[in-house]
Amino acid sequence: MPEEPGLLDIDDLTDPAVPSIPGEANDTGMADVLSGPRRLEDDAIRGNFTHSDSQVLGAVTECQRLSVKAVGEGPPHDDVDQNEGKHGTGAYIDDHHRPSVASLFSGVIDRLDMAERPARSRRQAISGQIGHHLGKMTASLTVERVVDPHLPGTSALVSTGVPAPMGAVYEAAGSTIDSVKMIQVTWWPGRHLTVRYMVASSRGALAGENQVVATVGRLPDGALVVEGPEGAVGVWVVPNDPLLPGLPSALDVPTVSSLLSSLGSNDVVTSTRLRSYRPGRRAVVEVRAGRSSIYLKVVRPSEVTALHERHRLLARHLAVPDSLGFSGELGILVMRAMSGVDLRKVLRGEGSPLPEAAAVAGVIQGLPEPPDHREVRSSIESYPRMVDLLRRLVPEEVDRLDRISSAIGDETRARSVPAHGDFHEAQILVEGARPVGLLDVDTYGWGRPGDDPATMLGHLDLLARSCADPRRPLDLARGLQRMWDRSLDPVDLRLRTAAVVLGLASGPFRVQHPNWVDEIRARLALAEQWVQSAARVDERNLTDPS
Asked: Do residues 531 and 430 share a domain?
């Protein structure tokens, strides 16, 4: 391992804390409130909104008489996936379909004054005040660094107060915002910015605590659109993700019961819970049925058939969750739960037995050849885009970024082996010291020999920075590295690992860590140590990197 690694935090290696969004019978979350994207079309109302709740509600009531249409301005956005597809079909509301104010919630406020409005907090607990001030400090730093003149609307989303588009949405729903906090920020400069917030409200159609997502750039079909002087902003309340149309259904107990019944299950569904969520990309829902759990993976409908086939193929060779079936229309894959505990939890614990390095490496040795041309994007192919982001987030580290980038260089190796594509410790299930399962095969395809090993080493090195006993993940990483050094090019392995760490460097910013600038710097220092380790290996002529 590189010598003297810096202390790091790896909260970004999993999604930010996803508060439970339970699904009970007759509980569909906010599906009726945000059932689709709508744009106000009447010039008589456009621009006449004020910040008075009564006036906004009156205007929304007036909207019931107007034609409202869905957004269709371009392809849905995604910061990683290349196979993008449209799912919005357009929707109209006319005089024959006049929902209530709460269910209409057209809230599409054109030319709205986008000035910030302070949150009206009723919570005065000391702990709440501490959290509020920490959030303000983090948000202030984010506001300072997230500047994108090529992406109109950025400053409207990254705010130390209540973002104006969200304030407009909540006012239109007759709701008062008590508190708001950014919990996830995904920014690809010049392309799009997506922010996930936790918002608390004490009244109106959006009363309670909700996750709200806002995005600028390429707005997905199906997003509620708020327009202001800086441009259009797409907004939705989780679980009503316009790119994941199956998510509300996956959380609805009666719908899930029908789905499982159609697959031959007689178990009674008692609850659903959102376990992880990446806006516009994927979600995982845990379903309690009888005495067991079933997991629903929600993806874009265009992707679910291939994902089902991938699970079925790999289940014949490896211990992966078998697909019990899927809904092509909703983009829902039904997966059987597996026994075991993920290795990350075991590594973070104390006293639990750990699997041998050979057993961990052996988890992916049985990967079959992919039947198609699906390719794994390597860390070396991916890191240049991350460097562009990091230059903006930590401009004082430009020289270090240039040194690391120059050392890693370009991808020169051909894809020649089956690869998991995201092989790290949280993807492995263990019982005792024995690996018993492999998770998350979405990225399975053709890769390079060093891709999966480098991903594992980079994640383990970061994990050590958050463990009570860092020796546990570091000992496993050292054992794996010694083994892989004998079977792979050790210089290439280290450079790929440096690229993995570099690719994870923006994680503290993404989850809005209170000290994300220093955390990013620490990760850059670790990536540089891997580069230096590669240089020392090369100097000792342990291998010919050519």
From this structure: yes
Is the pLDDT at 18 greater than 80? The verdict is: no
CA distance 181 to 64: 32
| Mean per-residue pLDDT over the chain, rounded | 77
Last residue of a domain, one of 336, 367, 398: 336
pLDDT band at 130 (very low <50, low <70, confident <90, very high): very low
State whether 91 and 149 are in the same domain: yes
Examine residue 93 and state whether it is found in any structural domain, yes or no.
Answer: yes
**Furthest-apart CA pair in the chain: how many Å?**
79
Nearest CA to 270 out of 286, 284, 287 is that of 287
Q: In the chain, how many domains are there? A: 3
Angle separating helix axes 379-393 and 451-463, nearest 10 degrees:
40
Confidence of residue 220 (pLDDT cuts 50, 70, 90): very high
| pTM given for the model | 0.77
CATH, residue 443: 3.90.1200.10
Domain that holds residue 435: 340-539
Q: Cα–Cα distances in Å, from 27 out to 172, 250, 382?
A: 22, 12, 41
Which tens digit of pLDDT belongs to each residue from 474-508? 999 999 999 999 999 999 999 999 999 999 999 99
Q: Is residue 533 assigned to a domain?
A: yes
- Of 426, 303, 273, 299, residue with least CA distance to 360: 426
Residue where a domain stops, chosen among 178, 202, 237: 237
Q: Are 462 and 502 in contact (CB under 8 A)?
A: no
Cβ 101 vs Cβ 57: under 8 Å: yes
Predicted local distance difference test score (pLDDT) of residue 1: 56
Other Cβ atoms within 10 Å of 482 Cβ, number: 11
State the pLDDT at residue 156: 86
